[in-house]
Fold:
Amino acid sequence: MPTARDIMPGLRVLVIGGGGGGIGAAITAGLAAAGADVAVVDVDEARAKAAADSVAAQGRRGVPVVADIRDGADIERAVARARDGLGGIDALVTVVGGLMAFGMPFDRLDTWTDDEWDFVFDVNIRYVYRALKATLKIMVEQGTGGAIVSIGSDAGTAGHGSPNMVAYGAAKAGLAHLVKSIACEYGKDGIRMNMVSPGATETAATAALPAATVAAMNATIPLRRRGKPEDIANAVVFLASPLARHVTGQILGVDGGVSVESPMPDLSVIGTK
Ligand SMILES: NC(=O)c1ccc[n+]([C@@H]2O[C@H](COP(=O)([O-])OP(=O)(O)OC[C@H]3O[C@@H](n4cnc5c(N)ncnc54)[C@H](O)[C@@H]3O)[C@@H](O)[C@H]2O)c1
Structure:
C-alpha cells in the first residue's frame, strides 16, 4: 500500500527560504513528509537549523545552510553545500520573496526610489536566476533530470495588475516567464520547472491584520478564505515529485480562485426567451 512517503522517496531537495515561519517551513515539512531529504537555505541561522531539525524528526536527512541570497557568491556556495550534504540535488524550490515582509513600500510608483525597485527585483527574481545557474549545471551533470518549483504570487500572475506594488508584480510576472523559458531550454535534459502562485495566505505578515480587513479580503475570494501555508506546500510537493513528471512550464494558482474572479458585466440586460 503506497504511503505519503512514497511520493518523493529519497529525493534530494534544496529549498531556498525553507526556514520561514510561514510558507517556507510548511514546504520543508511537506517535502520531508513525502519522503524527501531536504537542504534548507536561510539567511537566519536559527531558522535554517530548526527547519533541518524538523526534517530529521521525520526520519529524513535535513541539511541546514546559512546564506544570503542577495549575494551571488553566497548562493553558489549554498548550492554546493546542499549538493555535498545531500549527495546530489534532484529538486530545487525557491521560496524567498515578498514586498512588505522586507519593509518595502506599498505605494504609487512615482514615490519609489531606484534602490527600492532594485531591492524588490533582487529578492524576488535575480536570486532565482543565480540559484538556477548553479543548480541546473549540477542537474545536467547528474544526468537524471530534475524538478524546479518557484513560488510566485497572484500579484504577478493573475489577470489584474498589482497597484501600489508594481515592482513586486513585475518581478513575479518576470519569474513566471522565466519558468516557461527554463521549461523549454532544459526539457530535453528531463528537467521540469513550474510555479506555484499563492493568493493571500495566512502567514506572520498578514496575521496582524484587523478582523474587518480579513473579512473584506475573504469576501473577494471565490472560496471565501485565505490560503494556509500547507495549501501551498501540497502543490509544491506535487510539482516537485514524479507525480508531475509530464508537467512543465506551468503556473499553478493556489489562491482560492481569486485569479479567475473578475466581475462579469450584467448580462440580465440581454433577457431570456
Ligand atoms: N504570505 C502571502 O500572503 C503570500 C502571497 C503571495 C505570495 N507569497 C510568496 O510566498 C513566498 C514566501 O513568503 P512568506 O512571507 O510566507 O515567507 P516565509 O515565512 O516562508 O519566509 C521566507 C524565508 O526567507 C528567508 N529569507 C529572507 N531573506 C533572505 C535572504 N536574503 N537570504 C536567504 N533567506 C532569506 C527568511 O528568513 C524566511 O525564513 C514569497 O515568495 C512570497 O512572495 C506570499
